[in-house]
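User: I'm writing a short report section on ligand binding and want a predicted complex to refer to. Could you take this sequence and 6-O-phosphono-beta-D-tagatofuranose and write out the structure as C-alpha cells? A short remark afterwards would be nice.
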Amino acid sequence: MIEHKQKENGFKYIEIKNEKAEAKIALQGAHVFHYKELGKPSVLWLSELAYFEEGKAIRGGIPICFPWFGKHKTDATLAQHGFARTALWTLTLEEEIESNTTHIQLQLLSDEKSKALWNYEFDVRLDVVVGSELSVTLSVHNTDSKPFEITTALHSYFNVSNIDEVLVKGLDNTSYYDALDKMEYVQKGEVIIDKEVDRVYYDVPNNIELHDGKRKVELTQSNLNSLVVWNPWIEKSKQMADMNNDAYKNMLCLETGNIGRKPLTIEANERCVYGVVLKSYIVEEG
Ligand code: TA6
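Assistant: Sure. The C-alpha cells for the complex follow:
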C-alpha cells in the first residue's frame, strides 16, 4: 500500500506498508523519516520534537546532505548541509514491485532558486526500496556543461535502545578527523560512544555494523568513502530545540558519504550513483 498523506499544516509525505515493512518519506528533502521491518524495532530514529515544516530540516530519519556537507566552504551564510534536505522534491515513480517490496523515486532538478545558491544544472534522483531491508540510492546527474564538485552524505539517524551498549564495528585502523578538537586519529577497535562524538572516518569499508544489545544493523554502502559518526551527547542536545534533552541516549548518526577531503567530482553529462542498504537483525544469544 502506498498512501499520499499530509500533516495538518499541509506537509506532504508518502506512507508505505507492505508484507515486510513500513516507511514514511517526506516530499520535502526526499526524507525517509521512518523505516521499520514488521516485528522488529524501528531502524531509524526520529526526534519526538522534529519539525515537519516547510524549509526546516527533520531531526531524524535520513536527511540528504547535498551539494555540500556541513558548513559551506566559503560562504557561512549558506545553509548547513546544503539545500536538498529542505527543497521540495517531485515524486516520479511509485510501484509495488512485489507484496513485500515497494519502490519510490523522487527527483530534484536545478532551478533558478538552486542556481542562486549553487550555479550548476543537475538532475538528482533518490530511489527508495522498502522491504526486508531499506535501500536508499542517490543518482546525481551533472546536466551542466562544466564539471562540479560535491560533498554529500546520507545523514542517517539510527534508533538505539541504549547508547551505553552501542558498538560500531568495521572501523578498526581507519583514520578519522575529530571535528571537536580538529585533530586526526586512527581508530583502534570498535567505536563506543561515551561522550559527544563528531568524527569523519575516511576510506571506510563498504560494510559497517551497528550493534545495540541484541540488535544489529548492517550498513552496506556503495560508492561512498567516508562515514560520519555523530552523537551530540548532553550539552549539545540541550541546545537543540527539536530534540529532547535525554534523546541522545537513543540515537546515533552513522552518515555514509563523500565528505571533507574526499569530495566527488562529477564531469559534465556524467552521472554518479551512490547509496546505502540498511538491514537489521536480532542477534541470537549464546
Ligand atoms: O554530521 C554531523 C553534523 O555535521 C554535526 O556537526 C551536527 O551539527 C549535525 O551534523 C546536525 O546538523 P544539523 O544542521 O542537522 O543541526
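A remark for your report: The chain has two helices and 22 strands. The helical segments are 112-117, 233-239.
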